[in-house]
Amino acid sequence: MEHIVELKGVSKHFKDFSLENINLNIKKGCVTGFIGANGAGKSTTMKLMMNLLQPDEGEIKVFGLDYASCGREIKDRLGFVYDSNVFYEGLHLKDIRRIIAPAYKNWSDKQFYNYIQKFELPLNKAVKTFSKGMQMKASLAMALSHEAEFILMDEPTAGLDPVFRRELLDILQDIMADGSRTLFFSTHITSDLERIADYITFIQKGNILFNDSLEGIQKQYALIKGDPALLDPDTEKNFIKIEHSSDMFQALTNDAGKIKELFGNQVMIEEATLEDIMFYVKGANHQYV
Amino acid sequence: MFNLIKKDVIIQKAQILLFIPLIMFFAIFAKHVSPAFIFFVASTFIPLNAYIYDERVESNILLNSLPYTRKEIVAARYLGAIVYMLCSIGAAGIILLVFNYEYMLRDIAIAAGLFFLFTAFAFPLFYILKPGYIGMVVLISIIALAAVMPPVIRFLAKHLTSITEFLTSLSMTTIYFSSAGIAIGLYLLSWLFSQFIYQRKAF
User: Fold this and answer.
1) Which of A56, A261, B126, B193 shows a CA-CA span of 20 to 30 A to A247?
2) What are the φ and ψ backbone dihedral angles of B60, each rounded to 5 degrees?
3) For residue B131, which residues of chain A lie inside 8 Å, CB to CB?
4) Is the pLDDT of residue B161 over 80?
């Protein structure tokens, strides 16, 4: 499968935080969810993809092109939705259109006004009066109006009410329907991803822990509950993290098949949600990947 | 690039409407003010205002997410400033004419020279400083200038005769051309410097 974004050995160092040797491919035509705790490096990775930050080491390619020689072409084909408003806040949407539209080769006013109508956005109201959801829709309308092939969204669902979040996910599903777009979005509301994501990228403390299909993850990971007597140093190795209560242990494994073989019906095997995975991996004593 | 320059007008629609009454105010009430000063204020009005808008991190994220290179963003700033300077001086010239406020071509030349000097120093500062610090720096510079200027003026007054003697020994054209050369040279240097800084900036 073709890759829209390739990060090879990318490192970026800050005073108190580093991204170390990131290797990541984003598959074309898919929705990839980018999860990780606050401060894990999600925004930094996205800024690197947008060339708002330059890597200290490594190579970043978008559409197979690099920013040094094809920066403009890349951005022409790319749409962005940030977690905060980046539009001049005193301006009306119609003025923002006048600034943004001429920047793109493939801009379509027809599309723009279609989406404005569909998203019920006011054209003659200052952006600063928009709710978070409206600002997000406005960014999305801009991205869709220039036929972006790849849309990057940084925490688009954060701060949205549940009804609106549903609506947004429907919109995203809708825009993915024709298969020509690729969507990469970071979130810590993992239930959103279980609805629409094809792939999940999980980052922790500046390292990519996995980048797999949602289906694969759901097969591989499982929550195990059982009698603590079953545990010994050997069997414990199969778990990422084990939690003990008085008469039971609960643990996460990334090898559900092996656990079935080992314990059979002696333990309860439940499907692990992304939230379970995030929670257990955060507390893991050892780096398991 | 043209779009980036045009953007400043779209953003400042309301402020540009203020521009005309401001010059009219000068023309009516400030009869003793040097016309060169009025032209200078007029010429810096739009470029400086544009900077105040674009200083915000969010604006930089927006501009850098659009299909523009960083070189273009800086170039638009410097070229745009010249375009707006010329337009503003033209508009101010017409307003002053309408109000019978006398001025000479020399006043415009001095204002344009001052504009190049001022922006050559001010623009890189905007790129170096973190957003939100500009106001403080301007305030400190004004206080520092107020402290430094009187002794400088006293010094100049003392040695003025030798300075004026030197200047009068040069022909008027030499003075005009050499000061224009210095001002534009500084402006170009400042452009290169800003470009160097902006390319390394992280948002």
Assistant:
1) A261
2) -65, -35
3) none
4) no
